[in-house]
Design brief:
Blueprint (H helix, E strand, L loop, with lengths): L1 H18 L6 H13 L3 H10 L5 H4 L2 H4 L35 H13 L5 H18 L17 E4 L2 E4 H13 L3 H6 L6 H8 L3 H17 L6 E2 L1 H29 L2
Parallel strand pairs: 1-3
Antiparallel strand pairs: 1-2
Helix pairs in contact: 2-7, 2-12, 6-7, 7-12
Bound molecules: adenine (ADE) and zinc ion (2 copies).
One zinc ion binds next to helix 5 and helix 7.
Length: 260
């Protein structure tokens, strides 16, 4: 009997670990917020400043994760990602959970901010969430496969230590780079007007497909139990920086449209 109990408890604990999810790390979200701040129109800047009591977009960028441990906010958990099956040709809102997904979540945030009848408190909350989710949208594994929880179940090593490919993209590469979010934002690539315009082009679903295509490429370029390190960093960190920059520019586009 005792042995059965031990087995049951062990299984339970292993499931907890299995289900543990990772997040585009704090530095990534803040970088996207900081880059967006630099692309805001004066009107948007003023309105947002007022709504956030002078706090920056970088400052509020991790609120979406901070509330995760509070059961009262559990319904927002599926808003952090959207899964599109490899064989699917397009996004199908029918696949979203009852509580929605990253796409419906972002749309809801925009709707609340555009609604004159929303309370100040509601607007504040949904602005913080919008900053967070547009960041998540640009972490390719937040638009990954449901079958492996967006790469959370694709085990790899990072400099010899056990982790998974989702986590490598959330935070391992960014943390290994050892730059603060302000440094990452300041050192973003200099883009021509034309390049910025190309990034702003399209709508939410175009950006979802872009992340999804990147995720497909990344799934193919890694095998279970690969030990990733310097070579992987060298190959993919430029893409990480690019994703953070795209997230910032597109977040600013959304906000400038809301407050125009
Ligand atoms: N985090 C938890 N589940 C996930 C999923 N299915 N896709 C991406 N990120 C996730
Ligand atoms: Zn994540
Ligand atoms: Zn998130």
């Amino acid at each position: 009997m005792k042995r059965i109990l031990i087995v049951v408890v062990a299984l339970f604990i292993s499931q907890i670990n299995f289900a543990k999810e990772e997040e585009w790390g704090k530095t990534g979200h803040r970088t996207t917020g900081e880059i967006a701040q630099a692309h805001l129109s004066r009107r948007a800047q003023k309105a947002i400043d007022k709504l956030l009591n002078g706090h920056s977009l970088a400052f509020v960028a991790n609120h979406g994760d901070d509330i995760k441990s509070d059961p009262a906010y559990r319904k927002y958990s599926p808003w952090h990602y959207v899964n599109i099956a490899p064989e699917a040709t397009e996004y199908d809102p029918e696949n979203a959970s009852e509580d929605g997904d990253l796409v419906t979540g972002i749309r809801k945030c925009i709707a609340v901010l555009e609604d004159k009848n929303s309370s100040r408190e509601d607007k504040q909350f949904h602005l913080k969430m919008l900053v967070h989710f547009v960041g998540d949208l640009h972490q390719p594994f937040h638009v990954g496969h449901a079958s492996d929880l967006g790469g959370n179940r694709v085990d790899v090593k990072w400099f010899g230590k056990k982790t998974n490919i989702h986590s490598v993209w959330d935070s391992k590469m960014i943390d290994s780079y050892e730059m603060s979010y302000t440094e990452l934002a300041e050192n973003r690539d200099e883009l021509s007007k034309l390049q910025v315009k190309a990034i702003k082009d399209g709508d939410l679903l175009d950006w979802v497909y872009e992340s999804r295509n990147l995720a497909e490429k990344l799934y193919k370029s890694v095998e279970k139990d690969n030990d990733l390190g310097y070579k992987y960093m060298y190959e993919w960190f430029p893409t990480v920086r690019q994703q953070l920059q795209k997230g910032g520019i597109r977040l600013a586009k959304i906000l400038n449209e809301i407050y125009n």
